[in-house]
Each structure stands twice: as structure tokens, then as C-alpha cells.
Amino acid sequence: MTCLETIQAYGLRSLGIGERLLPRDDFTLCEQFTLIGSGLIWNIYFGLIALAAGFILATALALGKESRLPPIRALCRGIILLFRGSPLFIQFFLAYFIFLRLRQAGIGPDWLTNAWAGAAIVLFLNTAAYSAEIFHGALRTIPRGEIEAADAYGFTGLKRFTRIVWPTMLRLAWPAYINEAIFLFHATTLVFFSGFPALQQRGDALYYARYFADKTFNPFVPYPILAGYFVLLTLTIITLMGLVNRRLNRHLPQAPKRPRMMGQILR
Amino acid sequence: MFAFCADPDTLETARWFACYLTTGKHMVFYSSFGTVLLLLAITAPTALAFGFLGAMAARGPAPLSWIGKTYIAIVRGIPDIAFFLFFVIALDQGFEWIRHQILCPDWEQPIRQGNDFVVCSAAKLPLSSSPQWVHEVYGFLIAVLTFAIVFGAFAANVLYGAMRAVPQAQIETAQAYGMTPRQTFWRILVPQMWVYALSGLGNLWMVLIKATPLLFLLGVEDIVYWARELGGAKTPRFTDYPHGDWRLWYFLFLLVFYLAFTKISEAALERLMARLTHGQAFGARATS
After folding, report:
1. Which residues on chain B are in Cβ contact (under 8 Å) with A101?
2. Cβ separation of A217 and B259 shorter than 8 Å?
3. Residues B269, B51: Cα–Cα separation, whole Å
4. Which of A101, A190, A235 is nearest residue B81 as measured by Cβ atoms?
5. Considering only CB atoms, which chain A residues are within 8 Å of B245?
6. Cα distance from B111 to chain A (closest Cα, Å)?
7. d(C-alpha B77, C-alpha B72), whole Å
8. May I ask the CATH architecture of the domain B14-83+142-276?
């Protein structure tokens, strides 16, 4: 099989399109590159879904933590503590068993126990909790002057929030949020190692990398391939989020420093 | 454990549980919490040492600093789980390969034969004749080393940042007093950097705690392994204590354990931070 044929056969293998049977022996480099790359589709899918949905919930949680109503405050604090205080690995397992129970009891829909939905929900809640903590920290460090200026201009309620508080919060939180996004994409590799099964061997990049490493008993080929893919993914995230960062800071006198590969690691 | 456990069928619920939770396998489950704590106790200082070396290398002259900076940057680019899975096999094969080169110099065949990794039997680690506990300890040590390498990179990042945060005036003063670079590093920079590193290292400790369930992926029989094992449905045919699928409850217990652990750590770190920055102009920096 030529490399082009391999890509045609296995390029979308992780989605169930193309060749069903995985290669068994005599693995070529091309097969390894193709299948691990194919698995990366899942990592990107989980990451994007969780990041987009988590962003909205994180904003809500961060605001809820400052709420004047004690029950809302307690709820938001509880959610953040639960998801930040426990390992994601345990959360995956626990969520899977809960979804399994729900399905057996006939309450929950079937698809909850599938990784594409169940794991995405866990990742979404997890990243929302971490981002909420970042946003909350930023919310508390918004310069008083900006709020007072907003008051002086007669901004109130929603308008004050969308025009003044929220953009400033994002601006302050963004460097830390880039880190969170990177870690989220890294965390997606845990999905198929926890309770969630990879149906018909449709797994993520790490799943296929491990498949090759187990079969060939040689970790020095598949894992560096995986690492290469992830370095590219991380650089893409840093670049894209850096563009947003530039837009958020565009009114400031000097251009902020571009986020770099060696940033502060916070989680 | 208890005398009345002899016939489980006759027990009422409370006593049944007393017996069930003290079976031999449950005792192993409880002791595996010790495994996790032991891992943390060994890994944390080792990772700090790796991190210190990494940060020192990153500050060093050109070829060395590339190595240090690559080591630091790599954890940001690549998922830690990939590292764990990689190093467990890679370290094992690396050790065996080195022993093979030393112990069996007249071995003719290639080491990689198709999908097999073949070394002479004298180079096997641990030796196939060694008792079971040696295998377990070896597996655990490989896991510790893996954790230390990965978290050493995180620590190197924190320490590198902390070293750069020490005010330049301090370094210049040291130079003005005629200290050599070595003296400046050990007497001025290192003692002062810890305060800047503390919140980052505290954060890292939390990340480390939350990474311990990954021991399961490394093949160590840790709390996750036993929770899965004990929680799975048991039929009366194989055990005196049959039950349905209780994995949910076991994992709930693990969740509570980790929540308590991180909560206690957080409180302890906060006190430590308050104590170490007492009277200094750092203000109350948020640790989270």
C-alpha cells in the first residue's frame, strides 16, 4: 500500500470512515502518522467543544461567585471546588458510572455513556471550573477607577458589564486562560483511558499511539509522532489565542508581549 | 477479620458491611492509599531536584541552556500522560539496554527483532528469578522516576521564573562586592528565589496530587486499580460477599479522598505562604 492509499484508508479511521481493520503487523511510518493524526480529530473536537461551552459557563460561575445571593454563591463555589479539587481522571470514571446508572434506570439517554457526549460534558464542566477561578481572580483585580468611570458615565447593569467589566476581566485573565486552553487540549488525551470505551477502536491520538507502542513494543516511534502533533496543536492555540490577546489589549499604549511557548504554568 | 464473619449469609446489614470492608482485599485497598502518599513523598523532592537542575541549565551557557529550555518548554507542548506512557517503557528498555551492553558484550543478535525487545537474560530488570516484591518495587520506582522527570519540568519552569524575578539590584550588589558568579548564584540568588517560587510550587503540588491516579496507567496497583477491582460486580460463585456494580461508590470515595486532600493542602500552603512572606512587601498574593 502506498502512503496515499494509507491516508485514504485510515485518515478518518477515528470517525469510523474508511478501513475497519487496524494494521496488525509490519507497521509503516506512514500508517503510524496517519492513524495518530486521525485520532487527533477527537482531541480537537473535545477541546473545542469544552472550550467554547466552558467559556460561557465559566463567566457565569465567576460572576456567581461574587453574587449577592448566598445560595447562588454557595452553588458556584461548590461546583468550582468539586471540579478543581479532584483529579480529572476520577471525574471521568465517576461520570461514566453515573451515566451508566442513569441509562440502566432508563432515565438518561443512551448516548451519555458514549465518549463523544459523556466525556465532552465532563471536560466542559472541568474547564469551566478552572476558567471560572481565573476569571474570578481577574474580576477582583479590575481597577476601581474603571468601574468608577463607568458609573460616572452613567453605565448601569448589563451595559456596564458588557462594555466595561467583561472586556477588562478578559484582558486581565487572558494570559492565564491561554494556559488553561493548552491544558484542556492536553487533558483530552485522558478520555479513552478512563471509563469511556473507544467503540470499534475509534480512539484519540494517544489511543492509537499506545496501540502502536503496545504492538511493536517500541515507544520511540509512536510517542514522538504524537508529541510532534501536540507541539503543533499547542503552537496553533498559542497563536490563535495570542491574536485575541492582541485585540483585547489594542487600546493600550504599548503592545503587550506575545504569549510564548515558555509561559507560566498554572493549573 | 471478626469472628462473626465466619458465615456471611447470617449477618444483618451493619455487621455484613463490617465484615465486607475488612476483607483481605480491602486491606490491600487501604494500604494502596499509602502507596499514593509514598509516591508523593518521594516524587516531590526528586522533582524539585530535577527542576532545580533544569532551571540551572536553562540559565547556563549556550548549548546547556538549549537543553534546559527544551526540557521546560516540552511540558507545555505535550500532554503529560503521553510522557508517562512513554517513559515507563522507554526507561525500562533503556536500563535493560545499558545492562545488556555491559553484561553481555559478546551477544550477536540484534536487540530489536521485529516486534520484540530481546536482551540476554542476565540483563533483564528485574531478573526473572527475583521474587514478586522486587518486581513490584521496580515498577513503583520506574513510576516515581517518570513522575519526577515530568514534574521536574514543571518545577524547572517555576524555578526559572523565580530566579528571574529576584531583583536585578541584588545581583548587581553582589557583583559590586566582588562575588564570583558561583557565589552570587548560591548566596544571593538561590536563597531569595524561594519566596517568588512558592506560589508556583504550591500550585504544582496540587497538580501533582491530582496526577497520582495516573499511577494506574503505569501499571502500579494503586487506589484506582483496587476501586475498579473491588467495585466490579461479584457473583456468589467466587466470593462470600456478592454485590452488584459498586464502582460508583468506590469512585465516590476516591473523589472525597482527593477533595479532602487538596483542601487540606490548600489550607496548609496558605499558612506557609503567610508565614514565609510575613513582614515582606509581597502582599497577600493569591495562591490559587
Report:
1. 248
2. no
3. 20
4. A190
5. 97, 100
6. 11
7. 10
8. Orthogonal Bundle (1.10)
State the smallest CA–CA distance between residue A152 and chain B in angstroms: 30
> What's the N-to-C CA distance of chain A in angstroms?
45
pLDDT in tens, B189-230: 998 888 888 888 988 999 999 989 888 888 788 888 888 888
Note whether A206 contacts B161, CB cutoff 8 Å: no
Q: Which of B119, B199, B210, B212 to mutate to test the interface with A (most CBs of A within 10 A)?
A: B210
* Structure confidence by residue, pLDDT tens digits, A58-74: 999 999 998 889 999 99
Q: Using an 8 Å CB-CB cutoff, list chain B residues near A217.
A: 89, 115-117
Scanning the structure block, which residue is given the C-alpha cell 521536574? B152
Length of chain A: 267
User: What are the beta bridge partners of residue B117?
Assistant: B112
pLDDT in 10s for each residue of chain B, 288 residues? 677 777 777 777 777 888 888 888 888 899 989 989 998 999 999 999 999 999 999 988 888 899 998 888 887 788 888 888 898 888 888 888 888 888 887 777 777 776 677 777 777 777 777 788 888 888 888 889 989 999 999 999 899 989 988 899 999 999 999 999 999 999 999 988 888 888 889 889 999 999 898 888 887 888 888 888 888 887 777 777 788 888 889 999 999 999 999 999 999 998 988 887 777 655 444 443
Decide if B210 and A87 are in contact by the 8 Å CB cutoff: yes
Given this model, what pLDDT does residue A51 score?
95
From A154's Cα to the closest Cα of chain B, the distance in A is 32
Provide, as residue numbers in chain B, all residues whose Cβ is less than 8 Å from the Cβ of A102: none
User: What is the C-alpha separation between B250 and B248, in angstroms, rounded?
Assistant: 6
With CA atoms as reference, the chain B residue closest to A91 would be: B255
Where are chain B's structural domains? 14-83+142-276
- For cell 492582541, the residue is A246
Q: Do A186 and B210 touch (CB under 8 A)?
A: no
3-state helix, strand, coil in chain A (%, to 5): 75, 0, 25
